[in-house]
From TrEMBL:
Protein name stated in the entry: histidine kinase
Signal sequence range: none
MF-aspect GO terms: phosphorelay sensor kinase activity
Keyword terms: Kinase, Phosphoprotein, Transferase, Two-component regulatory system
Domain Histidine kinase: 180-393
Its EC number(s): 2.7.13.3
Record field: catalytic activity: ATP + protein L-histidine = ADP + protein N-phospho-L-histidine
Pfam family, one: GAF
Length: 404
């Protein structure tokens, strides 16, 4: 079969009702061979077959279209009904009944919705049958209309599936490209920031030192963006955020250091810490600090500038809970549902900073640890983002997670 015929055969094969249609036709007419055929100018191809007397054509079988009556149906798009070919004035001298050895025959055209010809539903038998003037012809023509609808429906589904698969492949290539690009950008960015840091320490001219410090700040910012993109790509490509889970005796100090750095960058904002005893923690310290940094950055950008940002870290009921609270306008329910999706931002009049990946990455880090992120927001209570990390799962993960 040609590729087109193979595609048509696959389409017909997915229409579950066709075997039942052929069975009804055979039982109603008494014709022991029934088929759905794709008919082109050159070929007659069997796409579905019911053969109870050994006519000898199976699914995929092909005939020269010019030797079949279906070719005449293709040309005229009219049903042909024969009770007894040897006695029929039109067909007793026709070569086709003699060639294929049938007496009784019926075939109806299958037309697409645009009027184009697809093929036929046909049935035949070596013995004569009474077919003309009965309800058999309208029944088969109704089956042909139903089949046309089913064929177009299946073809539409196939086109949709092909388009979706193509989009998945394109999305996969796009995300792989992002990952490779982000990885390759790290080395030049490291050179830029290292050079700018060296210059800022050695330059004596105030204007030159300011320029070097500006380059250093921009380099750090670009490095963070690249890191976010890499984490995003890892999460989307299915590998997940890589972890290096270790005992973290100094996690409290690391969290204080993160908050302190952001406090120095935003001296006008008030950040309060309530960090309890975190001994016994097993986690990826750098990743947990990254979560805190992202949550504080989110609170700084979207919270009330006059309000206090409160950070809490504690162990309660075998759970590690890290939370960041800020006052300000509550998050709308519609936005809340998309809060941890990539490239999303909470509603705010403040200018957007970054790619909108901070909360998404925080969620991926939580999931990689076996935990989850939570957010609560109301006008009365403000907004509270929380990381919940079950300690038992973290300890188990430590035994099976390799360092990246």
């Amino acid at each position: 079969m040609t590729n087109a015929a193979l595609s048509d055969s696959a389409t017909i094969g997915r229409i579950n009702v066709i075997p039942a249609i052929l069975q009804v036709i055979s039982e109603t007419t008494g014709l022991r061979f029934a088929a759905v055929a794709r008919v082109t100018e050159a070929r007659w191809t069997a796409l579905a077959v019911l053969d109870t007397f050994g006519f000898g054509i199976a699914v995929g079988g092909e005939l020269e279209a010019s030797t079949t009556l279906c070719n005449e149906i293709r040309a005229g798009q009219k049903t042909i009904v024969i009770d007894q070919a040897s006695q029929d004035e039109t067909y007793r001298d026709h070569p086709t009944p003699h060639l294929y050895g049938f007496e009784s025959y019926i075939a109806v055209p299958v037309l697409r919705s645009d009027g184009s010809f697809f093929g036929t539903i046909c049935a035949l038998d070596p013995l004569p049958r009474s077919l003309k003037g009965s309800a058999i012809q309208p029944m088969m023509e109704a089956f042909a209309r139903l089949l046309s609808i089913q064929i177009e429906s299946e073809e539409s589904v196939q086109r949709t599936e092909i388009a979706l698969e193509k989009e998945r492949q394109i999305a996969g290539l796009r995300e792989k490209f992002i990952a490779v690009l982000g990885h390759d950008l790290r080395n030049p960015l490291f050179a830029i920031t290292a050079g700018a840091e060296l210059l800022s320490k050695r330059l004596t001219d105030e204007r030159s030192r300011t320029i070097a410090e500006h380059i250093l700040t921009s380099g750090h910012r670009a490095t963070q963006l690249v890191r976010d993109v890499l984490d995003f790509a890892r999460g989307r490509l299915g590998d997940g955020i890589p972890l290096n889970i270790q005992p973290c005796a100094d996690l409290d100090q690391a969290l204080r250091h993160v908050a302190g750095e952001l406090q120095r960058v935003h001296p006008a904002r008030l950040i309060e810490l309530d960090i309890g005893d975190l001994s016994g923690m097993h986690c990826d310290r750098e990743r947990i600090c990254q979560v805190l940094s992202n949550l504080i950055a989110n609170a700084l950008q979207h919270g009330d500038e006059q309000g206090v940002i409160r950070i809490s870290a504690r162990i309660a009921d075998d759970d590690f809970i890290l939370s960041v609270h800020n006052s300000g306008e509550p998050i709308a329910p519609a936005i809340m549902a998309q809060m941890f999706e990539p490239f999303s931002h909470p509603a705010s009049d403040a200018p957007q900073v970054g790619l909108g990946l901070g909360l998404y990455i925080a969620k991926q880090i939580a999931l990689a640890h076996g935990g989850y992120m939570d957010v609560q927001s109301s006008a009365a209570a403000g907004t509270l983002f929380s990381l919940h990390l079950p300690l038992v799962r973290a300890a188990r993960a430590a035994g099976r997670t390799a360092s990246p």
